[in-house]
From TrEMBL:
UniProt gene name: rfbD
A Pfam family that the UniProt record links to this protein: RmlD_sub_bind
Name of the protein in question: dTDP-4-dehydrorhamnose reductase
Keywords, in A-Z order: NADP, Oxidoreductase
Pathway: Carbohydrate biosynthesis; dTDP-L-rhamnose biosynthesis
Presence of the UniProt keyword Metal-binding in the record: no
Listed PANTHER family: DTDP-4-DEHYDRORHAMNOSE REDUCTASE (PTHR10491), METHIONINE ADENOSYLTRANSFERASE 2 SUBUNIT BETA (PTHR10491:SF4)
GO process terms (BP): dTDP-rhamnose biosynthetic process
GO cellular component, one term: cytosol
Ranges where the RmlD-like substrate binding domain occurs: 1-275
Domain of life, per lineage: Bacteria
Amino acid sequence: MLGRDLLARLAVGGEPTTGLDRAALDITDAEAVRGALETYRPAVVVNAAAWTAVDDAETYEDRALEVNGTGPGTLAQACRDSGAVLLQISTDYVFAGDAATPYAEDAPIAPLNAYGRTKAAGERAVLRTLPDTGYVVRTAWLYGAGGKNFVRTMTELAATDRSLDVVGDQRGQPTWTVDLADRLVRLGAAAVAGTAPAGVYHATSSGETTWCGLAHEIFALLGADPGRVRPTTSEAYRRPALRPAYSVLGHERWRAAGIAPIRDWREALAEAIPALVEAETPARS
């Protein structure tokens, strides 16, 4: 999702860009990574590659660590040698989820699950290797047109007559990949210009809601009955990996870079829903 929207955003700006998928570049292969940077000589590298199967990471943590921890470390070393800026995408799952106010960028991390631990390892590798040109961009609750996600699933279910039980005791910030891509482009440009301090940034939508609240909003935007969505608890919907109960992130660091944080999640969702429905229409017909 993010990779596609990032390439689309860069195309609008006319930036010379190379997008490499897993088949073209395995980020755990140090020789391949060095070769790619020598070939393309980028000013900015954005690592949108990750092991994102949260529950599977509980069983295969070593494999997840290779992608989420070793891979970013390999990229950081190659960027250090080439002089490129690195934007490393990370996650709210590095936090314990026991806060009552938004997590600041410098708040202590304490992952609850294997996925969070492996992403935290990637953060440490980037910040340690690239203290002046490494950027960790934490995001959460992503949705977009390029892959499976909660919002797309709800838009499909809204078109049925089903009633749904949706978790209502986890709070977070639904974030459209289009908005995230825009902030990454702005941050990369500011990093190259020397106007954005290196370090951690939180790139989630403003405001907060629950999964159930998000589903209600989606149904309302689509003209479906939000009453068909009923709140349930995390305990009733147990999964292998623990989820943070509170994943709301603060956005104060953007001020230092002279870039506005991402807009409110409701505003973004209202714009995104028609685009997502349009993107799905050919597949349904």
